[in-house]
Each structure stands twice: as structure tokens, then as C-alpha cells.
Amino acid sequence: MTAPDHLRTWLTVRATVPWHRARTVPLPVGRPVRDGAAHDIRTRDHARSPQRAEGLLAALARARTDAASGTPLTFALLSTWQRHVLGVQDAPFRRHPAYAKQGRERYGTAPDLPARLDACLAEAEDPALPLTARAARAYLDVCFFHPFADGNARSAFLTLTFVLARAGVTLDQVAPVRRVQRRADDPEGALALADMLAVLITGTVRRAGR
Fold first, then answer.
1. Per-residue confidence (pLDDT) for residue 22, from 0 to 100
2. For residues 164 and 171, is the Cβ–Cβ distance under 8 A?
3. What are phi and psi of 107, to 5 degrees?
4. What is the dihedral of CA 160, 111, 71, 100, to 10 degrees?
5. Average pLDDT value for residue range 113-133
6. Is the pLDDT assigned to residue 1 strictly greater than 80?
7. Which terminal residue of the chain has fewer beta carbons within 10 Å of its beta carbon, N or C?
8. 3 Rama class: left (phi>0) / alpha (psi -120 to 50) / beta
9. Can you give the C-alpha Rg of the chain in angstroms?
10. For residue 158, how far is the Cα from the chain centroid?
11. How many Å apart are CA 125 and CA 90, to the nearest integer?
């Protein structure tokens, strides 16, 4: 018996989440007391592998440059970052089903998945939704489309960072985002991620003294 396709589950859940209810934050945020993403990479990722940290820092810099330049968020853009993340020449969309969470979630395949991911990522620019909702949703899209053979959690994190950077937001801490696993079948958890981003942004502003 084939396991459920949790990508399909996510796409169903995604359409039911009341994203408009996500907490809003005042913008612009301004300069934080520290770059939380870079700090987390230099500590947590470096402890695992200096090469891993080096690649992720290069991808982070590229993602922020792309955000500042107005480059559209697409799978092709994610692929350019993933080359740094994985240290490879090419990072194509996966061709086979993918698994996560010790096999508890399975993400299926279809010829149109890259185009469907692009359509989802384009919604990160929707001005009708709070920034927190758009960033959380794009993060989860990458998690559950699971487009790459490896490094999808890092790709999702870079995507979230890109969406925040586009709005001029740099978090001073990111551990709550990177340490908590999210489920494809959890609409409450999806909205909770958006609200957690609001808490992190508010804390960033407070600690910066503004």
C-alpha cells in the first residue's frame, strides 16, 4: 500500500489556513543588534561541519542580494542558492518521491511540480496578507514540496529569509524557526509559525531599542 502523499495534504491544508489572521508587525524594522541567521549558521551549522556553514553563509548572502534586487522568487532562484548549500554544480528538482521525519512524511512526484511550486512562491508577494503569513507559507511550501534531493530544510530557511529581507527585516534570532519541525497536516501549526515570526520580529525591534 502506497503511503499518503503529504505534499497533496499540504496543498489542501494550505488552502484552508486563515492566513489573513496572522499577526502583523510594524515595518520597516531597521537594523537588529545582530544578524540572527548568520549567527546561527556560524555556531550551529559550523559545529556540524565548517564546509556546511561556509556553503550556507554563501547562499544566505546570495539570497539577500537577490531580495534587494527584486529578483522573483522561483524554483530556479532556489536552485542557485542550493548549489552553494550543497557545493554542487546543479541542483535540479527531484525526480523521485521524497521522505522526511524518519519516513513519516512522503512527498510524491508529478511533472508539473516545479510550475506548481513557482505558483505558490509567487504568492509570497501578495500585499493583501501580513508579511508573517507570507514568509511562513513560503517556508512551508519549500518544506513540503521538498524540491531537492538534500538540504530542503536549509532551502526553506533561505526562502523565509528572502521573503523577510524583501521587506527589510533581519531577525536577531532564528533558532525557534530552525529547531521546530512542522507537519504537512497541521493548519494550526502553519498559522502558529506565522505568529511566531511576529514575536521574533517584535523582539528584534525591542532588543534594538526602537
1. 97
2. yes
3. -115, 120
4. 20
5. 97
6. no
7. N
8. beta
9. 16
10. 5
11. 27
> What average pLDDT does range 87-104 have in this prediction?
96
Task: State the residue for C-alpha cell 546570495.
Answer: 62
What is the per-residue pLDDT for 20?
Answer: 97
pLDDT at 106: 97
What pLDDT is recorded for position 28?
Answer: 80
Average pLDDT of the segment spanning 137-156? 98
SS3 201: helix
Using a cut of 0.90, tell me whether the model's pTM lies above it: yes
- Under the banding of pLDDT at 50, 70 and 90, the label for residue 192 is very high
Q: Are 29 and 168 in contact (CB under 8 A)?
A: yes
Higher pLDDT, 193 or 2: 193
Domain annotation for the chain: domains and CATH numbers: 6-17+30-207 (1.10.3290.10)
Beta carbons of 58 and 84 less than 8 angstroms apart = yes
Give residue 13's identity as a one-letter amino acid code.
V
Q: What is the mean pLDDT of the chain?
A: 96
One-letter amino acid at 1 equals M
CA distance 37 to 41: 6
- Quick one: DSSP state of residue 70? T
Q: Which three cell numbers stand for residue 174?
A: 532564528
CB-CB neighbours of 71 under 10 Å: 15
Q: How far apart are CA 39 and CA 60, in angstroms?
A: 12
Quick one: cell of 68?
A: 534587494
H helices of 125-186, in order, are 131-145, 152-166, 175-179
